[in-house]
Each structure stands twice: as structure tokens, then as C-alpha cells.
Design goal:
mainly alpha, 2 domains, 0% strand, DNA-binding
Length: 296
DNA sequence: AACCGGCCCAACCGCGTTCAG
DNA sequence: GCTGAACGCGGTTGGGCCGGT
């Protein structure tokens, strides 16, 4: 049974906002500062709107610091790598992109970035088969070459990143083939969903990027101001760490980094699986539930 | 010019979480 | 501890826009 509607839908205006309504809302927020009670706002501001709708309008459109469009490649990369790490946690992803809203990031991913990833994947898949087939999987020869998977600037992050399936755990277990099972339920759900909607094998693990992939768009990006070092406590991340590694370097992710990443993953996946990952890094304790405070 | 289909984005919907009473 | 209201989030939808035919 669903919850009761927050307002009487029959009596409030719905649909696109008029400039007049925007102005009323803007004026109210300007003069009253932080909105404590969105449900009460429409009446106070003279708006015939649902409070929820007002909140959304403000957060997604009217806020003064909002940026619209014009995503940079660096932002693309942040979105992609975080999507790989934590799935469709848009609010978290958006929080790492100043001026971007979760709705905006979500729309951007669904309408553009995902396709960009697919296109890049096609390119790199062909390259892989034409020029680098037979090189095997850098994570371990025990893994059967997976079916074609997005291997793009985005899709290259779709392989198990340290944050979603740490190499420390993998190498410790000695069973690289168990990667699929290493995904947390929440991650699997995300990928499953992605698979259904995108009609593409994103749920499959990508093979390790080829050298060609390593030269791709993503690898050449500057990482100095990336967010992950901040998230894991200021550690200096190499690109290989962030991308899940390239070649042998991946297999030798140092324990400390792996631990930090496991902690990060545990923060995002507060479940038994995350606890298992975290436990593998001995000194890392998963949070009880919810996101790590540092991530919110 | 009219129609069509795909794209894009703002807005809506419903559910889980939080919190005050 | 319980309950219900409010909040926050992710998924989905509606409709305008635009390019192709």
C-alpha cells in the first residue's frame, strides 16, 4: 500500500512552472533563507503548488549555483567512474560535481553519457578483436574472456573497480573468476537494471582495457582535483587505481589503497557483502548502515 | 508543409528514511 | 517504542523540440 499523497493533487497546479511562479518561489527563498518546511511553503509564498514540487523546482532549477549543460570531459569521467563504483546513486554523484543536480546528472547519463559509452565500446571492442585478441585478462588467466562489454571511457570503468570488487580481495582469494559474485546485491541490482534498460551487456565484466583503451579519452584526463582521494582520506590515487587498474599494476594495488577503497565500497554497500570485503582488509570496519558520514 | 520518430529535460511518482510528537 | 508527517531519492513519464522523410 502506497503512502498518502503529500497534497491534494486536484487542487494544486501541476506541470511546467511559469516565470511568475519561479519569481514567487525565488523571492520567498531569498527573503526567508533556508526552507524549513516545504509543505508549508506554497501557502506562505502564494503558490498553488505542491510543496514537493516547489522543493524540486528550487533544487533542480532555481538555485543560484546551478549549472545547466556544458558537461566537461572531466565531469563525464567522474560520473562514469562513480557510476561504476556505486551505481545509480545520483545524489552522491551529483554532490561531487559542483553546480550539478542529481536530476541533471541522471538525465545526462541516461540521454548522452550512456550512449557515448556504448559508442566507445563498439570502437574498442573492434579494436580489441582486431589488434589485441588473445592477450587474455590481466586480472587472471582463469577468467574466461567475457562476452563483449562496454569498453569505453565509461565502459572501461564498468569492469570491477577496486571500489566495487577490490583487487585485494580477489588476489587474496586467488579466485579471480569469482568477480561476478563479488558484486554486492545492490550493485548487481543496479547492473541488472542497466542491462535490462540498455539492452546491452553492461552487466558483464569488461575485459581489461587494452593498451589502446589506456590511451583513450579517460586515461588522459587530469586527476589532480578528483574526488576519490578525498573520499578515501587523501590518499594519492593513481589512474590505475581509479580505473580498476591497467595491466599488471592493477594486480599490485598496495594494501593501504585497497583498504581505503574497500572502506569506500563498504560505505556504499552497507550490507553483508560489503562487510565481507571490508573484513578482508582486516583493519577496515564497515559502517553499521547507511553512507559514511564523509560521503554525505 | 505535414508528418513522424527520436531526443532531451523538467516534472511527477512512489518508496525508503528520518524525525518529531 | 510507535506513528505519521516530512524529506530525500531514484525511476519514470510527458511533452516540447528538432531533424529526417
Amino acid at each position: 500500500m502506497g503512502r498518502a499523497p503529500c497534497c491534494d493533487k486536484a487542487s494544486v497546479k501541476r506541470g511546467p512552472w511559469s516565470p511568475e511562479e519561479d519569481e514567487l518561489l525565488r523571492n520567498y527563498v531569498r527573503s526567508h533563507g533556508a526552507v524549513g518546511n516545504w509543505i508549508a511553503l506554497p501557502q506562505k509564498a502564494g503558490l498553488n503548488r505542491c510543496g514537493k514540487s516547489c522543493r524540486l523546482r528550487w533544487l533542480n532549477y532555481l538555485r543560484p549555483d546551478i549549472k545547466h549543460g556544458g558537461y566537461t570531459e572531466q565531469e563525464d569521467m567522474v560520473i562514469c567512474s562513480l557510476y561504476n563504483s556505486i551505481g545509480s546513486r545520483w545524489s552522491i554523484i551529483a554532490s561531487k560535481l559542483p553546480g550539478r543536480t542529481d536530476n541533471d546528472v541522471k538525465n545526462y547519463w541516461n540521454t548522452k553519457l550512456k550512449k557515448k559509452a556504448m559508442a566507445m565500446h563498439q570502437q574498442q571492442y573492434h579494436h580489441h578483436h582486431n589488434g589485441t585478441a588473445g592477450r587474455g585478462h590481466a586480472r587472471g588467466a582463469t577468467i574466461a574472456t567475457p562476452p563483449p562489454a562496454p569498453q569505453s571511457q565509461c565502459a572501461s570503468y564498468m569492469q570491477p573497480s577496486p571500489a566495487s570488487a577490490s583487487s585485494a580481495v580477489t588476489t587474496a582469494s586467488g579466485d579471480a573468476g569469482s568477480f561476478g559474485a563479488m558484486y554486492s546485491p545492490s550493485h548487481q541490482a543496479t547492473l541488472g537494471h542497466y542491462n535490462v534498460n540498455a539492452a546491452a551487456p553492461l552487466a558483464e565484466f569488461s575485459p581489461m582495457p587494452t593498451p589502446a583503451a589506456a590511451n583513450s579519452w579517460a586515461i588522459n584526463m587530469a586527476f589532480e582535483d578528483m574526488f576519490l582521494p578525498e573520499l578515501v582520506g587523501g590518499g594519492d590515487f593513481s589512474q590505475a587505481d581509479l580505473f580498476g587498474g591497467f595491466g599488471a599494476s592493477l594486480l599490485q594495488v598496495q594494501d593501504s589503497r585497497a583498504s581505503s577503497l574497500q572502506e569506500l565500497s563498504a560505505c556504499y554497500f552497507p550490507n553483508a557483502q560489503a562487510e565481507m570485503w571490508a573484513a578482508a582488509a582486516d583493519h577496515v570496519k564497515p559502517p553499521g548502515a547507511g553512507l559514511c558520514p564523509s560521503l554525505t
